[in-house]
Amino acid sequence: MHRMIVLAAAVVLGLGLFVARAAPAAKPTDPQIAHIAYTADQLDIEAGKQALDKSKNADVRNFAQRMVADHSSVNDQALALVKKLNVTPEDNPTSQSLTQAADAERKKLASLDGAAFDKAYIDNEVAYHKTVNEALSKTLIPDAQNAELKSLLEKGLKLFESHQQHAETLATQLH
Fold it and tell me: 125: closest CA among 50, 75, 53, 56?
């Protein structure tokens, strides 16, 4: 069930990005890219906070704390950049799909406890970071027009790739 929800979220995001790539007129704009990136970070902050509330596993809690801190830092930088550029992030179908999938995952995780929660949370983090990292590298970074936005996204990608590796390591320990 958990893998189906993660897969559904990846498919929704992937399809949204595929449509954006397939139709040149549908390429995301910088305000949309900023919103997608901010939303993705915010959703992982919320997931990390949920893990901090539910998990008793020290490794999972350390990972969740890192997610909250790192994604909060990136979002602070993103907010400073959009303020500097006088850009208003624009809500869009990709941001909405991410939010809907994360809401469903949060509800599912709320029903789990102990090792089952830890495993499901970390498995979701692996899948989430794979999906977001792919979106950053294949769509958001290439389509970003502003050099400062592109640079922030590239910095974020490096950080988020380390998150994915950390989550993958934790996942093998929890299985």
Answer: 50
